[in-house]
Amino acid sequence: MNTSDFNYYLPHELIAQTPLKQREKSRMLVLDKNSGKIIHDKFENILNYVNKGDTFVFNDTKVLPARLFGHRKDKEEAIEVLLLKQENGDKWQTLVKPGKKMKLDTEIIFSDELSAKVVDILEEGERILEFKYNGIFNEILDKLGTMPLPPYITEKLEDKDRYQTVYSKNLGSAAAPTAGLHFTNEIIQKLNEKGVNVVYVTLHVGLGTFRPVKVHKLEEHKMHSEYFVISKEACDVINNTKKNGKKVYAVGTTSCRVLESATDENGIIHDMAKETDIFIYPGYKFKMVDNLITNFHLPESTLIMLVSALAGRENVLNAYNEAVEEKYRFFSFGDCMLIKE
Predict the structure, then answer these.
(1) Could you tell me if 24 and 184 are in contact, meaning their C-beta atoms sit under 8 angstroms apart?
(2) What pLDDT band is residue 285 in, cutting at 50, 70 and 90?
(3) Quick count: other Cβ atoms within 10 Å of Cβ 200?
(4) Looking at 144, 169, 194, which one is the last position of a domain?
(5) Residues 56 and 186 reside in one and the same domain
(6) Total domains in the fold of the chain
(7) Which H or E element spans position 24?
(8) Per-residue confidence at 338, pLDDT binned at 50, 70, 90?
(9) What is the signed CA dihedral for 157, 161, 164, 168, rounded to 10 degrees?
(10) DSSP-derived 3-state class of residue 198
């Protein structure tokens, strides 16, 4: 398949720049993955589409305030650093602007408490920085860092908690698992009251999520890897859900990637902690995920390819075109889709 097979027209004004005041008030396009039938609804009615014994799988990663601003030690020139991934100890894989001037051993000053040195340069230009600090790193980062919003969001985020899910727990992501942004504690409580299982996995989202696919043929694309953890307790619940003939709902593409990475060819999911570079696109046979809650994704992105693998490319592009006509809000702060059987 070609990357261009996943293109669609999106007017710029439909890219949501700010989150809604109330998380659950977003619109929800419900797509039947088999027939392609579409229903327009509100996310707050999500409970109408689930049954007792079904399981929702949430990604409880927490976004780092990973964008830092500083200057070179020897000059006042402004430097922007984006933390991507902790390598070991105080060494982090980062994106640095302007990158060309960030040669080995270059030092960056962020404040009296925090500085860093370039200790390695990777093949695609990322810099490994080793940080020095006075105090506790995460506390300093929380004070100095800002949320790493995607490049298509140009308005300032007034409340940085709105780029976190209400259940975020494990710090380590460079981007939010945005399908989860629609959930409130009240909706999760109502799921429990209905007899729906709620389990959590952790996948730390990397910025590879936003990187464009640069090859024409999908098969030639090298997927970024992301670290995930899934517990035995979560696996037991998920395996029992399948055993009882109920449905597994992945909340977001990140949860979907965990579920498909940790499930064997017999449809049994196992606890593990490892990196995954799974690339899901049409032709992929799902081993675990039945239904998916997800936002609307960028044209030609690996995420729209994953969604198309679950619901069919024509069904998905038809749904996206209808969402454009109906003026849904797109991308991270936008509306959502429920893809179900």
Answers:
(1) yes
(2) very high
(3) 20
(4) 144
(5) yes
(6) 2
(7) none
(8) very high
(9) 170
(10) strand
Judge contact between 292 and 32, C-beta under 8 A. no
Same domain, 59 and 173: yes
Task: Strand 248-251: give its sheet, edge to edge.
Answer: 38-42, 27-32, 336-340, 291-295, 248-251, 55-59, 197-203, 226-230, 272-276
Q: What are the CA-CA distances from residue 287 to residues 35, 63, 178, 203, 239 (Å)?
A: 20, 28, 23, 19, 12
Q: 211: which 2 tokens?
A: 């990187």
Q: Is the pLDDT of residue 166 over 80?
A: yes
- Does residue 150 belong to any structural domain of this protein? no
Can you give the length of the chain in residues?
341
Q: Are residues 236 and 332 in the same domain?
A: yes
CB count in 10 Å sphere of residue 271? 14
DSSP string, 26-94: SEEEEEETTT--EEEEEGGGGGGG--TT-EEEEE-EEE---EEEEEETTS--EEEEEEEEEEETTEEEE
Enter the pTM of the model.
Answer: 0.93
Give the residue numbers spanning the domain of 99.
Answer: 67-144
The residues, ordered by sequence, that sit 6+ positions from 9 with a Cβ below 8 Å of its Cβ are 321, 324
Is residue 149 included in any domain, yes or no? no
Per residue in 200-252, pLDDT tens? 999 999 877 667 788 999 999 988 889 999 999 999 999 999 999 999 999 99
Q: Has residue 151 been placed in a domain? A: no
Helices marked H in the chain = 137-144, 185-193, 232-243, 253-262, 302-311, 313-325
The CATH code of the domain that includes 98 is 2.40.10.240
Two tokens, residue 250: 């992945």
Integer Cα distance of 259 and 235 in angstroms: 9
Virtual CA dihedral for 101, 103, 105, 111, nearest 10 degrees?
30
